[in-house]
Specification:
Layout: E1 6-9, H1 15-24, H2 32-39, E2 42-50, E3 53-62, E4 67-75, H3 84-99, E5 105-108, H4 114-120
Parallel strand pairs: 4-5
Antiparallel strand pairs: 1-2, 2-3, 3-4
Helix pairs in contact: 1-2
Length: 139
């Protein structure tokens, strides 16, 4: 796979693209209603396009001052393993380093071996000082 046809888009994905990438990349599905509302909370977004098709994405969400979270790092399976996740994270971390306040707290949830990627960008486990927790709303 050549990276010559890869371009970076600095824009929030459409609801359709967001849901498609999450689903095909193996992330939990989100309803159209949830995606539409959630994408409005984007502080910064990056998409990776191959020719005219979006094949990867990542977002930074937060309150705009104190707390931020890296979310939705997704690359289509056929484009994994060629450095696109690293490209996405590089863009997000560049934005973090050049735009967030000095005291900003940036977190993320690292699934499986993705932890290795995030560690390359300076992210560290919170344990044992603190433990990440979650509550999934299921109706």
């Amino acid at each position: 796979m050549s990276l010559s046809n890869i371009s970076i888009l600095y824009e929030v994905p459409s609801v359709k693209t967001y849901r498609r990438l999450r689903s095909l990349a193996g992330l939990s599905p989100k309803s159209e209603k949830a995606a539409r509302a959630g994408l409005k909370g984007t502080i910064f977004a990056v998409q990776i396009a191959h020719k005219n098709d979006v094949v990867g994405m990542g977002r930074l969400i937060g309150d705009g001052g104190c707390h931020f979270q890296v979310v939705d790092i997704a690359v289509l399976p056929q484009f994994q393993g060629i450095g696109l996740g690293k490209k996405i994270m590089n863009e997000i971390v560049f934005y973090i380093n050049h735009n967030l306040p000095d005291t900003a707290y940036v977190s993320l949830i690292a699934d499986g071996s993705a932890r290795k990627l995030y560690e390359e960008f300076g992210f560290r486990p919170t344990a044992p000082a603190s433990v990440g927790m979650y509550l999934r709303v299921e109706k």
